[in-house]
Amino acid sequence: MKYELNVAHLYGDLLNTYGDNGNLLALKYYAKLMDTDLDIQIVSLDEKFDPNAWDVVFFGGGQDYEQTIVSKDIQGKKDDLTDYIEDGGPMLAICGGYQLLGHYYVGADGEKIKGIGALDHYTLSQDDNRFIGDIVIKNKETGEVYHGFENHNGKTYLGKGERPLGEVESGHGNNGEDNSEGVVYKNVYGSYFHGPILTRNGELAKKILLTALKRKYPNADLSSQEQLTIKPTF
Q: What does pTM read for this prediction?
């Protein structure tokens, strides 16, 4: 059986500074191995986000100027995005997208940029410093190890109901203090990993796609998809 998933690329015409759109190419690659076609569409400024229309959401990041524009627009999508998240919709949020799902983040110039508070984290900025370099984390619950590259000024602190995507084995992570990197909340995965994250960590791509397939096709036999072997790419 051939499956289909609708993917919303939030503000993909604005937030593409760091090449994280490559995550969508990785998703398409792994989806093909799982007998699944992806229909990827941008949901941008002044466009409604329908929580019932999408099976997967990707939310990338950009520079502070673009994110300030997105911050204002996304307030009109706040309730629908929150409904999607609370209903178990799978989402991957990278860097600025990750930050904007929280309460706020402080930009490099000290401006407090409002998020949507769908997740309970917040992000501060560093003075004259960035976390840059290779990073390795391990998820305590699954034992999965993720490899990536971080490049961020923000220092994110997780809140209620949130757990890290992994604990830092080398690198800095969310804030360089509590050994956490990224976030997991329901079926939302947030991270500072560039690279893009899914090209080096196919197990995460598989997890996102399986979640979406089970949610959309609850009675389907997805045993072959579950048994797909992901070869390391790092």
A: 0.96
